[in-house]
């Protein structure tokens, strides 16, 4: 990767980290497609590593707003989803996996726009956690399922709860990816280089947070979900 390409990735990571710091997700959706176009071998490990650090900061900032019960149900579903995602990384062609997952996200967004708003009941949250675990481990894009099921929460509650869920989920994904040999020294070095950009983006999100309301969070979440899925589709095709 050239210096110019690395600078571009750092800029995207900064913007994506700001988005995740503001709405609770977004790092993988915006940054993963760009990295995939330049060097697919760096995914999903590099983004999962950065997400782990970003979610630590998110939990610390919004710790008083975390829905522990909802996080627990989501993590219950995340465990089998993470295992399935790691197996898919090792077994399926990247294009087939990307097309399937992106299509699923777009369908969920379409249903939400048409008025489908799943209540965050235990079964729905656990199912979303499973989908997020599978998508997050296989493609580093695990935010859309959780955003759809938690979009009715207040901005702080959504950010804090998603950060808590993604923190534990990222650790699960890293363990699973390490087990199948998808984390190496090159990925660790790449993530370390992008760490300052991630930290700057999170700091900037503190300025953005005061300007968000519940309706805006929902619109941004749906728009980001759609953008992420479309980028994955374009990349796969």
From TrEMBL:
It is a multi-pass membrane protein. Keywords: Cell membrane, Membrane, Transmembrane, Transmembrane helix, Transport. The chain crosses the membrane at residues 41-60, 72-91, 97-116, 162-180, 187-204. InterPro entries: TM_pro_TauE-like, TSUP. Its main location: membrane. Pfam families: TauE. Belongs to the 4-toluene sulfonate uptake permease (TSUP) (TC 2.A.102) family. This is Probable membrane transporter protein.
